[in-house]
Amino acid sequence: MIQGKSVLALVPARGGSKGLPGKNVRPLLGKPLIGWSIDQGRASKYVDAVVVSTEDAVIAAVARDHCAEVPFMRPPELASDTASSIDVILHALDTLEQAGRHYDMLVLLEPTSPLRETADIDAALEALLAHADAQSIVGVAKAESGHPSFLLRRKGVLLEPYAPQEFGAKRRQELDELFFLEGTVYIAWVDALRTRRSFYHERTMPYVVPKYKSFEVDDLTDFTVIEALMVARMKGSIG
Q1: pLDDT digits (tens, 9 = 90+) for 100-148
Q2: Predicted confidence (pLDDT) per residue in 72-90, tens digit
Q3: Are residues 150 and 217 both part of a single domain?
Q4: 125 lies in a domain?
Q5: Are residues 185 and 139 in contact, defined by beta-carbon separation less than 8 angstroms?
C-alpha cells in the first residue's frame, strides 16, 4: 500500500506473438521474459499483489513459478490480436472484485519492457500520489534523433522538412523538449481508469526514463538489443 491506498500490479501476457513466438517465456539472461516484470512488481514496497492475465497454460505455470498470482485464465476473445488492452485490464479488475478483492490503483507491467527497475515503479507511484490533479502516469522518453525537426518527407523526387522550418540541421539545444510514449510503466487510479478507459488523457503525468529503458521486445532484434543493454547495465556501463 501507499498512503493507505491499495495497489495491484497487473502483468498481461498472452500466448500468441507473431513477431517473436513464445517471447513471454523466452529466457532473457537465464530468466523467462515475463519473470523480469513479475520480480520487479513483487520487489516494490508499495505493490500489494502481482497478478498475471493470460490464456496460456505454459505462461501461467511460469508465472506461478515466479510467485505471481494467476487466479483466473483470460477468455480467448481477450487474447486475440484485436483485443484491446483496456478490456484485458477491466476483465482482470472485474474478476478480482467479484472475488472480493478491490484495489485503489493499478500498475500495468508489460513483459515487453524488462529494462524497467523496481525503483521506476515506486517513483512513479510516489509522483502520482504527490499530484492530486493527475489521474495517471505513463512512461515517456525524450525524442532525440526522432525529433520532428530532424525528419524529412518526399516531395516528388526531392526532400522537404516534415516540420515547418528552414531546411538545414539544427542543434539539439535549440529544439523544443518533446517526448515519445514507451512502456516502462503505466499507473492509474482504478476509478479513473474505468471512466476514462485509458491511461492517456489531459490529466496524465509523464514519468521520464532514459533512452535505453525505452526499448521494447517486439522481435528477435529487440530481444538481442535488450539483452546486451542488460549486460551493460550489470557491468555499470549504463544506468
Answers
A1: 999 999 999 999 999 999 999 999 999 999 999 999 999 999 987 777 7
A2: 999 999 998 888 999 999 9
A3: no
A4: yes
A5: yes
CA dist., res. 94 & res. 34, Å (int): 23
Residue 189 lies in a domain: yes
Indicate whether 158 and 123 sit together in one domain. Answer: no
57 shares its domain with 121: yes
Confidence (pTM) = 0.90
Average pLDDT across the chain, whole number = 92
Task: Give yes or no for a contact between 125 and 108, defined as CB atoms under 8 angstroms apart.
Answer: no
Number of domains in the chain: 2
**Residue 174: which region, alpha, beta or left (left: phi > 0; alpha: psi -120 to 50)?**
alpha
In a domain, 239, yes or no: no
Joined together, the cell numbers standing for residue 37 give 516484470
Same domain, 68 and 186: yes
Residue 148 lies in domain: 144-177
The verdict on residue 2 lying in a domain is: no
Residue 173 has what pLDDT?
62
DSSP codes, the chain: -BTTB-EEEEEE--S--SSSTTGGGSEETTEEHHHHHHHHHHH-SS--EEEEE-S-HHHHHHHHHTT-B--S---GGGSSTT--HHHHHHHHHHHHHHTT---SEEEE--TT-TT--HHHHHHHHHHHHT-TT-SEEEEEEE-STT-GGG-EEEETTEEEESSSS-SS---GGGS---EEEEEEEEEEEHHHHHHHSSS-STTEEEEE--GGGG---SSHHHHHHHHHHHHHHHTTS--
